[in-house]
Amino acid sequence: MAKKRKMKMEFRYYQMQDGIPILALLGEKWVQNYGRDVDYLHFHNYLEIGFCYSGEGELVLGEEPVRFAGREFTIIPPNFPHTTTSDVGNISKWEYLFIDAEGFLQVAAGTPLRAEKMIQRIYSKALCLKESEYKSLSNKIIKILEIMRASDEFYLEEAKGVLLALLAEVARMNRSSEEENIEEKGKITNMISRSIDYISQCYMEDIRIGDLAKACHISETHFRRVFTSYMHMSPLEYINKVRIQTACEILKKTDESIADIAYKCGFTTNSTFNRNFRQLMGMSPAEWRKRPENYEQQLLKFDIHSEKGW
After folding, report:
1. Most buried residue, 16, 217, 248, 273, by CB count within 10 Å?
2. What gap in Å lies between CA 173 and CA 170, rounded to an integer?
3. Which residue range or ranges hold the HTH araC/xylS-type domain (predicted)?
4. Confidence of residue 295 (pLDDT cuts 50, 70, 90)
């Protein structure tokens, strides 16, 4: 039986200059009828932020069609399938920022843990928002566009400052209602931070709570109590959460078998993996993988060709 032919999708690659995390696509080139003679989705290698000054049409974000009009903006993660199509006979004016969010936040966010947390939030969904309803975000986007257009003295330093504020606001906005605030109101103590770093690096191994406590030079009972007070969950619950979050990333981005993913993430049996996954995510790994918001899984269905975007 012949294999079903994959649908077409385009990968648009953008090249950043060394040390510059922002690429701005400005000017009259981006005043056009979008989507003419294009019937396929595309994705980028960087975070895309687009501002629509005028025009009307339809965006497709993953599998969801969304109407757009002037004075709206989009924030689209890398590897997220999408396309923009102006209404017939309609000229739309957009300008775009492509952002190396990961590289930028590894330096600007202060700690790897904070950078990772922000990136996970920012990349969790694609957004199409109205300027009138999200003034703070739209003002920052317009400000960066203006800074990049003027390219005045120290413009990159200024743009990076506004960019950090923008990404922080998006990360806060994308926080899920179920997400634990692991920092509480203050900083995580060095002891807890070391434990978190160890779990992040060694989640695939057999981690014993007693060994974590010994490394912190306290009793296991005291370690459990301190950890739980800061993290609002037990050490074992946190280990399982890290393992399940890692499994979600692999499920979303690959077609590896669930059994292989379970093993990679530190679970010795499929039943233990399935039980913990369902407890945390409310469904089985197979069910979760098929959800439309796991957009990177869609890429595996397409015949992808590459085009340099700029």
Report:
1. 273
2. 5
3. 193-291
4. low
